[in-house]
Specification:
Blueprint: H1 3-24, H2 28-39, E1 53-55, E2 62-64, H3 66-73, H4 78-92, H5 95-114
Antiparallel strand pairs: 1-2
Helix pairs in contact: 1-2, 2-4, 3-4
Length: 115
């Protein structure tokens, strides 16, 4: 690999990171997912061709696809799998937490109805 190729890849990587950061701005969980992917293993999960990095309608912006992250995590083991599942949960919302809050709300409503 030549120095020119390395520089080109590095610029492309940081362009993707910058586009993901722009998209995530304003959502703490999305920002956390982007930073997790950017910092883990020298950012190897943020590169061109990753199925979970999707272009936005806004030029230069990208978004993370939680389903694609989860699908790829299923092919891995160990810390890589856990990291991708965590990033997917941050982006897609943790279904356990959502389910729990819905159940709690239902219990509160049923208590009100009884009282």
């Amino acid at each position: 690999m030549t120095a020119t190729t390395s520089v080109f890849r590095a610029r492309l990587h940081w362009r993707l990171v910058a586009g993901l950061r722009s998209w995530a701005q304003g959502s703490l969980s999305d920002q956390a997912a982007v930073e997790l992917l950017a910092s883990y293993a020298n950012g190897r999960f943020i590169r061109p061709g990753c199925a979970w990095i999707r272009p936005c309608a806004r030029p230069g912006w990208y978004w993370l696809d939680a389903d694609a992250l989860t699908n790829h995590a299923d092919t891995l083991t160990g810390s890589e799998r856990r990291m991708l599942l965590l990033a997917a949960a941050l982006v897609g919302g943790d279904s356990w937490t959502q389910r729990r809050s819905t159940e709690s709300r239902r219990r509160a409503e049923s208590r009100r109805a009884v009282a």
